[in-house]
């Protein structure tokens, strides 16, 4: 006796039963997907700026003597045009960056695309960073620019004290006189034999 026909009939009945069963209702739509939350963007540290009508001050990289964020573009403008016969002395007391720093004087400076009488006074390099102590501008405007793309390999390093210092911390003063008075005696990292920090007292300028 063969069971093949009975088995075929059972499969046919099961298929008909599944076809006749009511379809399951669609699930209700869920809440719309929330858009992804953007990660907060850290604010850039204060860097650069314009100083007008002052006679002395300090310029430094963000977080000095610690590392500063890169890439970095900073421009400091010193305007001492309020003086009769102005000059500006920039004392490079703590200069650790080895490239990307320039010092330029102007007969007149309003903004990057509007100025007159430009003269480059210093381009910092591995050589000039060790030999320069002071920069003197014989004009009412001095502009210091820092353009940094990287940190490591671009900072002064010497055992045992100068292994974790970055950027610069320099002092400036405005003066009168023609010819201008000589700059004050100053120190620098190289003048200290790379053995420590050269510091200016609060009343230095």
General description of the model:
The protein has 205 residues and is mainly beta. Helix content is 10%, strand content 32%. It is built from 2 helices and 11 strands; from the N terminus they run αββββββββαβββ. It has helices at 4-20, 128-131; strands at residues 49-52, 56-60, 72-79, 86-95, 101-106, 108-111, 114-116, 119-123, 134-137, 141-148, 168-176. The strands form 3 sheets. It has a 5-stranded mixed beta sheet, with no helix packed on it. Strands 2-11-4-9 form a 4-stranded antiparallel beta sheet, with no helix packed on it. Residues 1-19 and 37-43 have low confidence and may be disordered. InterPro entries: CUB_dom (IPR000859), Sperma_CUB_dom_sf (IPR035914). Keywords: Disulfide bond, Signal. Residues 1-19 form the signal peptide. Residues 47-175 form the CUB domain. This is CUB domain-containing protein.
Task: Briefly note the structural class of the backbone.
Answer: mainly beta
Estimate percent helicity. 10-25%
Poorly predicted runs: 1-19, 37-43
* Largest sheet composition: 5 strands, mixed
What's the pLDDT, averaged over the residues? Answer: 79
How much strand?
Answer: 25-35%
Tally of DSSP helical segments: 2
- What strand line-up does the widest sheet have? 1-3-10-5-8
Shape: globular
Q: List SSEs in N-to-C order.
A: HEEEEEEEEHEEE
**Overall number of strands:** 11
User: What does the radius of gyration come to?
Assistant: 35 Å
First and last CA, distance: 119 Å
